[in-house]
Amino acid sequence: MNKNSGTAGNEDERGTERGVATKTRPKTKKPSQYRVLLLNDDYTPMEFVVGLLMGIFKKTQEEATQIMLDVHQSGIGICGIYTFEIAETKVAQVLDAAKRSDHPLKCTLEKA
Fold first, then answer.
1. CB atoms within 10 A of CB 37
2. pLDDT at 88 > cutoff 80
3. Are 41 and 104 in contact, with CB atoms under 8 Å apart?
4. φ/ψ of residue 18, rounded to 5
């Protein structure tokens, strides 16, 4: 005779329910993205801007030149899109480098 007779299929002889415990994971939300923008001024040398774009934003010479021309011609250029903390750090790096070189270059971020 079956010693589990009379009990439900998912219970042992002590009446304890058996099964796999599952834990519901909260859905992780993708972090917000921010554009880092350079703003045109009439004093910061183009070569300095290209150097910053290559150094801080890891752009190629061609990419950096194109962004610099966007800034020069339309007054604003997009350096890249990053999470908030990275964007904030890159803005600070640009402003610090410009200040150390006595250039009035402006850099900001906006939600993408």
1. 18
2. yes
3. yes
4. -115, 150
